Amino acid sequence: QVQLVESGGGLVQAGGSLRLSCAASGRTFSRNTMGWFRQAPGKEREFIVGISWSGVTTGYAESVKGRFSISRDNAKNTVYLQMNILKPEDTAVYYCAAQSGDEYNYWGQGTQVTVSS
């Protein structure tokens, strides 16, 4: 089992920045591929980006390319999502997740990000 706890969400004005953190505990974290997702009201959950245990990133969503950046610190069992040039359409609940096998099976509780115009 992997337990995930997100933090760092909040209210920010358009053009601002936030850094989300996801602290992992439980089974070995460093070997899990991790990912960030988000879900806006009335919309399906959207995959943002993933990062392998070695730090290789995969699949930035077009909507965040050039503005968001994922990283991880295996020594701290933490994965980060740096979000810059935030837009009102980035408003959502942001979730981190850990893969088991090829699926994202472990999820955090989510952290709200609200971007005001």
Which helices and strands, and how do they pair?
Blueprint: E1 2-7, E2 10-13, E3 18-26, E4 34-39, E5 46-51, E6 57-58, E7 68-73, E8 78-83, E9 92-100, E10 103-107, E11 111-116
Parallel strand pairs: 2-11
Antiparallel strand pairs: 1-3, 3-8, 4-5, 4-9, 5-6, 7-8, 9-10, 9-11
Unreliably modeled segments? none
DSSP summary, beta strand count? 11
Q: How does the overall form come out from the CA principal axes?
A: globular
Proportion of residues in extended strands? over 45%
The rounded Rg comes to: 13 Å
Report a brief summary of the structure:
With 117 residues, the protein is mainly beta. It has strands spanning 2-7, 10-13, 18-26, 34-39, 46-51, 57-58, 68-73, 78-83, 92-100, 103-107, 111-116.
